[in-house]
Write a structure and sequence with these properties.
It is a peripheral membrane protein. The protein is an alpha/beta fold and about 270 residues long. The chain is about 35% helix and about 25% strand.
Length: about 270
């Protein structure tokens, strides 16, 4: 399938700077009132990697990703996609990047096919190419049975799949996904995992945010851990987790104190 499996890396494609990583964040910083949400974050996502960004709720993951993809302007810092600055050249950067934000809003009074056709037209993709890719994506996402169903009536799993389809439609080189498996049933999750692994095997790069450690261990080859707006560890999965599990490393790094239900003696009475 063209949309998932072919990702040229030569310099003739937009952002084809040979030495540039898939994504480079430099000194990203964001403050809301008195709260430092993201504190001068530096992060590099290598080309061809399946990169996992983990952290507790409130760690700054979503804010960092929103700045990385051009949805939220940073107070300081830079975001570059294959060497293209997201804020000084947003059109070129967004042409080589597919984004699935957490809580994605989309036109809901359209069917899946209509939505993909509409997105393709907005991106200026030729009609015949849009039609071909739309059919392939609906097939792969197993959404053909919902041909007459409006997006507003989709289940959570179906919404995640059509959201991923919109992110893949223009054949990006990098996918940035914020909690793509949250509230997704096991069958839909298995389909999404297979699609993302195929995308990486075809030469694409993925940055996935999640707080589910077993999922990240299953999919990702490289990880970063965020806590209190900072990256506290980053590197190859085996290096970051050491001799234990990623969850054990995560708990140690973020300084979570686990009480295991202490003080709930009334539950056993």
């Amino acid at each position: 399938m063209e949309t998932l499996a072919r990702h040229d890396t030569d310099a003739s494609r937009p952002g084809g700077e040979e030495s540039a990583p898939a994504l480079r964040l430099t000194g990203l910083h964001k403050v809301f009132a008195d709260n430092v949400a993201v504190d001068h974050v530096d992060l590099t996502v290598p080309r061809g990697s399946f990169f996992g960004l983990v952290g507790p709720n409130g760690a700054g993951k979503t804010t960092a990703l929103s700045m990385a993809v051009g949805l939220l302007r940073p107070d300081e810092g830079r975001s570059e996609v294959f060497g293209v600055d997201v804020w000084s050249d947003p059109v070129q950067a967004k042409a080589i990047m597919g984004v699935l934000p957490d809580g994605l809003a989309m036109p809901e009074r359209l069917t899946g096919r209509e939505l993909l056709t509409f997105i393709g037209q907005l991106r200026g993709i030729p009609d015949d190419v849009v039609a071909q890719r739309t059919q392939e994506l609906l097939d792969v996402m197993e959404l053909n049975d919902a041909e007459r169903t409006l997006v507003v009536d989709y289940s959570t799993g179906m919404r995640k799949k059509i959201g991923l389809a919109t992110a893949l439609l223009h054949a990006p080189r990098l996918l940035v996904l914020d909690e793509p498996f949250e509230a997704v049933d096991p069958v839909s999750a298995a389909a999404l995992k297979a699609i993302l692994l195929r995308f990486v095997a075809g030469g694409g790069s993925v940055l996935l945010s999640s707080h589910v450690m077993p999922l990240v261990e299953q999919l990702c080859d490289t990880v970063a851990v965020m806590a209190k707006g900072k990256v506290v560890a980053a590197g190859q999965l085996d290096e970051v987790r050491g001799g234990g599990t990623l969850e054990e490393t995560f708990v140690r790094l973020v300084g979570v104190e686990v009480g295991y239900g202490e003080g709930l003696s009334w539950l056993a009475s």
